[in-house]
Amino acid sequence: MNTYKYFPHTDEDIAQMLRHIGVKDTDELYDSLPESVRFRKEYELPEAMSEQELRQHVETLGQKNCQLVCFAGAGIYDHYTPAVVNSILARSEFLTSYTPYQAEISQGTLHYIFEYQSMMCRLTGMDVSNASMYDGPTATAEGVLMAWNAARKPTQMLVSETVDDRVRRVVDTYARFHGITITTVRAHNGVTDRQHLTACLQQGGCAGLVVQMPNKYGIVEDFTGLADAVHEQKGLLVINSVAADMAVLKTPAEWGADIAVGEAQSLGMPMSFGGPALGYMCTTEKLVRKMPGRIVGMTQDNRGQRAFVLTLQAREQHIRRQKATSNICSNQSLMALFATVYLAVMGKEGLREAAEQSYAAAHTLADMLTAHTKPSSTPTETTSGSDSTPTETTSGGDCCLTFAGQPFFNEFCITCRESVDSIMDRGLKAGILPGVKISEHVLMIAVTEKRTLQEMEQLVHLIIDNG
């Protein structure tokens, strides 16, 4: 009898299997392995615990986690999650959901994927959405592959220097193994340099351009005329956006984008010490067959009842391996459900209100930090390879806006007289994560609707008054 029922095999089970294959014991089974690589010691495993003891042990471990007041962003944001979202996700039919390989019995999964796609199309203004990607960086890389595959004899793919560095590294990895040449469009004063972009486009052979909204410095760039310039060169415009920000900012469709990609973690998903996240991808109807993943549609069955079906699925991703449109065969189904429930609960007005509160709080904090500071020089960028580091000196105070005069949404850069490392160390001791380090003296701060005036005053005191 097996004492531990969660162990899959009893001694009798093992003996039966060994007899079936003609082996007397496990030592004979593994006798082809050299003795030097075989483990002969006892496993260093703790004694068994009761359920109560185990719960107490795990709770003790959990108390070691340090919960900080978060002013960090750079792609992952500390937004509020309505309680009902987690309650719905905890339902067993959702929590255990996976890729709908058997579509005819996966109506629940197909239903919420259909709703997710519908909501993402409304949010981005695009024609179609796939059934989600792993995260924002991989979704952006897939957008690059789409643009490259749609072009005729492409020689380069343009990526703005203001695209997040982590996104760029994933794009570079994908590009390297697909033979794609990436050309970096330089940044000037924190935004895409239009003159350099024009020069890059005039070289010809452009498959497309990737830009970000808001960009990696939190700046809201003006993309007026960008789509026309790229389209004149037969390229496609790929815009990476923070999903929640599109509630108030211009959508990718309004900018004339062909492909909209980005991170959807901002749709109420907890930061959770780094994941999971959710990548979205939307595009025009013209490019639907170039898009990786699945598209769920709604129809009627033979009884006239509403039914959901897999309308389109790129089968080549299962059979062509590295030559496929995408190597992502599964989707972030549970996270897509998270986004769907969040969007349904918040509604159009709720999503907009949360975004407006984040915007207002960020600008209030920026004013508080720079109230007694005047910049002594304009921002400059020192370029090394494809990376740029914004720098600015301050006078009359401890910090100033790094890109003074540039519009921002809920995230902005400040240049500090003191080193960012010192500010971060002091913040961690005070239970505050002050932001994201951009360079030695440049700190990027993000503010969401969760941050209170008291928390912002604490951050100002931490930075201005040195704690």
Short description:
Helix content is 35%, strand content 19%. The protein is α/β, with parallel strands linked by helices and 467 residues long. It starts with 10 loop residues before the first helix and ends with a helix.
Structure in words:
The protein has helices at residues 11-20, 26-29, 51-62, 83-89, 92-95, 107-124, 136-150, 165-177, 194-201, 226-232, 316-319, 333-370, 420-429, 453-464, and strands at 69-70, 128-129, 156-160, 182-185, 187-188, 191-192, 206-213, 236-241, 259-263, 279-283, 294-300, 306-313, 374-375, 380-384, 387-391, 394-395, 399-401, 411-416, 432-433, 436-439, 442-446. The protein is an alpha/beta fold. It has a seven-stranded mixed sheet with strand order 2-10-9-8-7-3-4, with helices on both faces. The longest helix has 38 residues, at 333-370. Residues 375-387 have low confidence and may be disordered.
